[in-house]
Specification:
Blueprint (H helix, E strand, L loop, with lengths): L3 E6 L6 H10 L3 E6 L10 E4 L19 H11 L4 E4 L1 H8 L6 E3 L7 E9 L15 E8 L3 E3 L2 H9 L3 E5 L11 E5 L5 E4 L12 E4 L2 E3 L5 H14 L1
Parallel strand pairs: 1-2, 1-3, 3-4, 4-11
Antiparallel strand pairs: 5-8, 6-7, 6-9, 9-10, 10-11, 12-13
């Protein structure tokens, strides 16, 4: 069975093709979805890719969260379909209230691009099961509004319920509270993170060592996890 993973393109999306390629490299079948449609084309999982989206000048993801296809994405997520939001996709998930909190301008005020070390805090989600809890991975990061915020009550709940999926290591690149790099929902099917796993899926095109962009493939496990999660439900 070919697992079909839809990648939604919004006006301004930059990394939709990269996400499609990552799905293909993981062994899945990528399906291009358009933000203005109301058709998920029978996909088994969904990726909201990174880049930008129309209306980001108001607040990142605020307008895209109300795109026509998001009605179907929200219904699918609430029904248990695996949904991954990467960078701008994470912002859209938060704006759509599929994940709690908010994302604001980096605390230093600058756009940042770096190879970022992360710790896997939750390896039981649909997008992280190929990892072990505590794994340390390197994933490219590029954002200008990646600072995660939430109330103390929400942060305590996220920590207490194990809903922090990834945490920044070595340096907090954007001022995210409690070094939070990514979250999952209670069911474990919806995951959002600021770093870009689709940029670390192929030897020779991702981070591998401190002094060179070489052969890091830590991001491939995100997409392999989703494929495994879908097949486990068949």
């Amino acid at each position: 069975m070919a697992v079909r993973i839809g990648v939604v393109t919004f006006p301004g999306s930059l990394d939709d093709r990269d996400a499609q390629r990552a799905v293909r490299l993981a062994g899945g079948e990528p399906v291009a979805l358009w933000h203005g449609d109301h058709d998920l084309q029978g996909v088994d999982a969904i990726v909201l890719p990174g880049g930008f989206s129309y209306g980001d000048y108001l607040r990142c993801g605020a307008i895209a969260a109300h795109a026509p296809i998001m009605s179907e994405v929200i219904d699918a997520a609430n029904a248990g379909m695996p949904v991954l939001g990467i960078c701008n996709g994470f912002q859209i998930l938060v704006e759509a209230q599929l994940l709690p909190g908010g994302l604001i301008r980096n605390d230093h005020g600058d756009f940042i691009c770096r190879d970022q070390r992360l710790r896997v805090e939750n390896a039981s989600t649909a997008w992280t099961s190929a990892f072990e809890e505590g794994d340390e991975i390197v994933i490219p990061l590029k954002n200008g509004e990646g600072g995660y915020i939430a109330t103390d009550e929400t942060l305590d709940r996220l920590e207490g319920e194990g809903l922090v999926a990834f945490r920044y290591l070595d340096v907090n690149p954007n001022g995210s509270l409690r070094d939070i790099a990514g979250l999952t929902n209670e069911r474990g099917n919806v995951v959002g993170l600021m770093p870009h796993p689709e940029h670390a899926t192929e030897p020779g095109f991702g981070p591998d060592m401190p002094d060179a962009m070489r052969s890091g493939v830590d991001g491939l496990k995100f997409f392999q996890s989703a494929i495994d999660a879908v097949l486990a439900r068949v």
